[in-house]
């Protein structure tokens, strides 16, 4: 949904030179383009504040607040994982412009440990199933519901309804080799599982995207394989942002003091680039949703015969909604009138923009 920087530049040149008003160099254009994009982007927040104070419209395409939200969706990042340290401090993404929420979701931490020494690798005569989720195999379409099937004889027939990761084992191979095969199959074929192998033991971590209601079953040749460890589901916790000075008061109050399992707080420091989570979440994975800064646009070029020719490989398009292409052109031309000392250009663009806004606000 980006706006082509070359299309905007060519349009700006055409309009600026229409009455011999002057030429805008690529260097000048890139500086003006960056400012114009940032001006439009920053205006979104003011426009949204104004829009929600006015009566809305049931038609989404005619509602001012919905229109602004549509334009900012291009800049919204959801579920970004924060880098944290052992002291409860986390580092916000460098591209962040406006932090929306910070939360913890440990539902990914479901763990199975399988010891392949338990599998009879000298008598592989039947098909064994290692079920990694509580859902039945026929319900494997649900995200995260996957089954690992141990395929022993080459002639084995597998039900078509299973969504399987298949591990081919042969009679007489060592348990460490079998464990390595299992881990490789998991890591290669599933986006929802990761496996780590140490000797004959395989530790599988996988997502839990639904509530746990059943128990995993692991068996080979009809005999159960012991589940050495099955992790428990952790609660979903959203952290509330507070001021640093208020955090001391909150923690000293027995009723307001945050808890690790159900609610928590955080405050920013280091010029807003870091946050501290209270209470310390430990090794939990923290995520955030935020509005990111748009990429700095740039019209890249190569000089051929003393003429700048467009080079798409070194260019960066505008990171704005396509509906902003006209506004971008007008804003750049308005700024260009100042740079090339042609106030008439700015005046024409300002008049055109005023007419456009008047029509939109009718």
Report on the structure:
By secondary structure, the chain is α+β, with helices and mostly antiparallel strands. It is extended, with a radius of gyration of 29 Å. The protein has seven helices and 18 strands. Helices cover 29% and strands 24% of the residues. The strands form five sheets. An eight-stranded mixed beta sheet has the order 1-16-4-13-14-15-3-2, with no helix packed on it. It has a three-stranded antiparallel beta sheet with strand order 5-10-9, covered by helices on one side. It has a three-stranded mixed beta sheet with strand order 6-7-8, covered by helices on one side. Helix 2 packs across helix 3. It folds into three domains: 136 residues, no CATH class; 87 residues, no CATH class; 115 residues, Immunoglobulin-like (Sandwich), CATH 2.60.40.
Q: Return Rg in Å.
A: 29 Å
Identify the overall geometry.
extended
Element-by-element helix/strand order: HHHEEEEEEEEHEEEEEHEEEEEHH
Beta-sheet strand percentage?
15-25%
Q: Quick one: biggest sheet?
A: 8 strands, mixed
- Note poorly predicted spans: 131-146, 152-163, 208-232
């Amino acid at each position: 949904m980006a706006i082509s920087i070359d299309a905007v530049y060519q349009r700006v040149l055409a309009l600026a030179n229409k009455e011999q008003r002057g030429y805008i160099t690529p260097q000048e254009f890139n500086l003006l383009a960056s400012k114009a994009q940032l001006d439009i982007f920053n205006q979104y927040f003011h426009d949204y504040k104004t829009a929600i104070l006015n009566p809305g419209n049931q038609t989404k395409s005619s509602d001012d607040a919905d229109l602004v939200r549509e334009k900012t969706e291009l800049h919204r990042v959801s579920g970004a994982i924060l880098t944290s340290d052992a002291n409860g401090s986390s580092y916000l993404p460098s591209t962040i412009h406006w932090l929306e929420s910070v939360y913890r979701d440990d539902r990914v931490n479901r763990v199975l440990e399988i010891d392949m020494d338990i599998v009879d690798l000298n008598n592989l005569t039947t098909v064994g199933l290692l079920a990694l989720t509580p859902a039945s195999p026929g319900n494997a379409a649900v995200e995260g519901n996957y089954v690992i099937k141990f395929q022993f004889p080459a002639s084995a027939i597998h039900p078509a309804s299973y969504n399987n990761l298949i591990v081919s084992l042969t009679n007489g191979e060592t348990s460490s080799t079998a464990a390595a095969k299992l881990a490789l199959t998991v890591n290669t074929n599933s986006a929802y599982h990761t496996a780590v192998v140490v000797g004959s033991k395989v530790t599988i971590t996988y997502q839990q995207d639904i509530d746990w209601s059943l128990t995993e079953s692991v068996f080979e040749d009809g005999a159960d394989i012991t589940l050495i460890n099955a992790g428990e589901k952790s609660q979903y916790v959203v952290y509330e942002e507070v001021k640093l000075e208020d955090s001391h008061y909150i923690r000293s109050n027995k009723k307001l003091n945050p808890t690790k399992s159900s609610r928590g707080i955080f405050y920013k420091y280091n010029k807003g680039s870091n946050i501290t989570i209270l209470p310390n979440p430990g090794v939990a994975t923290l995520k955030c949703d935020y509005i990111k800064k748009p990429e700095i646009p740039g019209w890249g070029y190569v000089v051929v015969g003393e003429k700048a020719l467009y080079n798409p490989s070194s260019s960066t398009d505008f990171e704005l909604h396509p509906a902003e292409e006209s506004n971008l052109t007008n804003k750049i031309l308005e700024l260009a009138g100042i740079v090339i000392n042609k106030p008439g250009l700015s005046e024409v663009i300002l008049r055109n923009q005023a007419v456009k806004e008047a029509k939109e606000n009718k």
